[in-house]
Amino acid sequence: MTRQMTGAKMVVQALKDQGVEVVFGYPGGAVLPIYDEIFQQNDIKHILVRHEQGAVHAAEGYARSTGKPGVVLVTSGPGATNAVTGLTDALLDSIPLVVLSGQVPTFMIGSDAFQEADTVGITRPCTKHNWLVKDTDKLSETIHQGFHVATKGRPGPVLIDIPKDVQFASGTYTAPKQIKISHYQPQVKGDLDMINELVDALEKAKRPVFYTGGGVINSGPAASQLLRELVDATGFPITSTLMGLGAYPASGKGWLGMLGMHGLYEANMAMHDCDLMINIGARFDDRITGRLDAFSPKSKKAHIDIDPSSINKVVPADIPIVGDVGHVLEDILKVWKARGRKTNQEALAKWWKQIDGWKQINCLAYKQEGATIKPQYALQRLEALTKGMDRYITTEVGQHQMWAAQYLGFEDPNRWMTSGGLGTMGYGVPASVGVQIAHPDALVINVAGEASWLMNMQEMGTAVQYRAPVKQFILNNERLGMVRQWQQLLHGERYSQSWSEALPDFVKLAEAFGCKGILCKDPKDLDDAIMEMLNYDGPVIFDCLVEKHENCFPMIPSGAPHNEMLLGDANATNAIGATGAVLV
Amino acid sequence: MSPLNIKKGSSKHSAYALRPNFSDVEETHTLAVLVDNEAGVLARVIGLFSGRGYNIESLTVAEVDHEGHLSRITIVTTGTPQVINQIKAQLGRIVPVHEVHDLTVEGPAVQRELALLKVACQGEKRVEALRLADIFRAKAVDSTLTSFIFEITGTPEKIDAFADLMRPLGLAEIARTGVAALSRGAS
Questions:
Q1: Domain named Thiamine pyrophosphate enzyme TPP-binding: which ranges (chain A) (predicted)?
Q2: Which fold does the domain B27-106 belong to in CATH?
Q3: Which positions of A are catalytic?
């Protein structure tokens, strides 16, 4: 069915045909025709944010927690430039987004018109692909193509720039089924020779470890199920990146905890000493590998990734498999079972004994004493009091983020939304709103630091407007904690600009926004205060005053290998050499 | 010159050598990239090279399939085998890119570049310039009483050699197209 309609109507029709239920956006001159169409329909819910960056992060939260692409609508010029941080964040964390931006009319492009920016030029390096649509007849096809590119292969953000005259003009609408098939069809099935080689390695491995990442989550819930089946059937240990938490349950018997710079001792030691590393949907990020020439020196490395450019980018792969994690895991299981479910039991038992020895170090130990709340304690209590609930966690970026990854347990995929690759402070508040919009009845908690939280706190207005009962759990140390920690360890304890002076009264701030504020500073009151937060039917800003100088451990200092972790303050000062200091 | 050890059958869907065998020696490779001829596609390719710190020695682009709106970009680049491998994989990620071919490793290829050289000279030097041009099969495509413009086609090395010879005779300006290349054989 082809129909004549205006470009603005096409946008709404195309979104409907793509199954879009929610759009996060902010109106402006160059998108008024589209907002006029949104006004005249009820199928798509528009969430009015307070800042375009918030719109993109909210859409990311929506996308990560549902597996569906997030949709954003912003105006030209500043509307589009404000979206750039969110686009970059989504690109680095492989989150499917479709961002629609208004543009000045085609006949004014290049004239430095009011609110004109070269949006496709600016967003070219921070999107998977982008388009400037100059012809209304091509608009609907481009939007459908945008959804295809955003969601197929390694997911990512796309942007479609729509000049205002294209929105006003009439053209022919093309439905999704009628568009010609895109040549963009990434390979999903892994090469069978390679899969056989991997199964061979699984059967023989003496000290294997699964190292999984966000690719498992992106592949869909079925991939997580297959991963669980494979891990449990082989009895191999498994660790995960920050992005992959929840793909394998924290309560599972193979679980070692997160790895990397602030990963668990046993996870990093297993990575360093293993003889077979099976990377599933992770990308050997520098937060994971530490010093590259000392990274897991004795292991054979298998790497499963849907993006061929991830393979051999940083760490050479001995068994490279290009394909979708779900498809490849299915084939691995099939082949491994057909070959008799063999593993080297004897060696595995020895390996686990060694791992259990590492676990005895109890690397997450801390002392909760005195009248000050330790941030770790706050998170442990939060974990204990929310266990078993229908719970989604978002975070900001910094120490609290690492503590959340260490002390909270994730049993399912799509429950953990955090800015991993880009490390975007200000991600958590809007992301929590996006998650809550997608799951109105669930418990959504944003674990935050006070400094990050302030970066996009305006989105509390959005939470209140749409009755999104998000819980903002702020670990307030009145410091930029991670910056302070690095200054202590690297810069002679010169704490340059890393404290939060003139902080607002968060309880009053909550009241000003029209939500509930809770202040807690005594460990004795913590449980009751958390329960008060959980039981309140509406958004809450929880100001948890914590120990100001707590450092986040374990820590692999920059420039160090996995087996040279710092476990506590005692061995931390001056542990980082001059070469490590130049690394971020 | 095939540093990339491709296991037969293992990468049949892909132009990328997945089996690493990396050395630290910088190599020069000629890549042929088939792309949709749409707005901004060249900026995507160039942005990839500048954004990730890769080298471009030369780059040519033109539409080669007017019905299918496909352009062919020929890029000469240098880097270690690991970097060359990344360049190919990163090019392959760009959505309007259809195919990436490494003509340097995929078998023998013909590489040609066209150059125009303006040589300003008089007297004996004019005769010498024409004589050298004849040896290099360069054509004089324009002449005034005090200058020639020569057109020469060949490998970049041949053009370099010709330019070196013309320099003492009064080489005033040179314009080069960059390399165009095709693999040999029927396919």
A1: 397-544
A2: Alpha-Beta Plaits (3.30.70)
A3: 52, 114-115, 164, 482
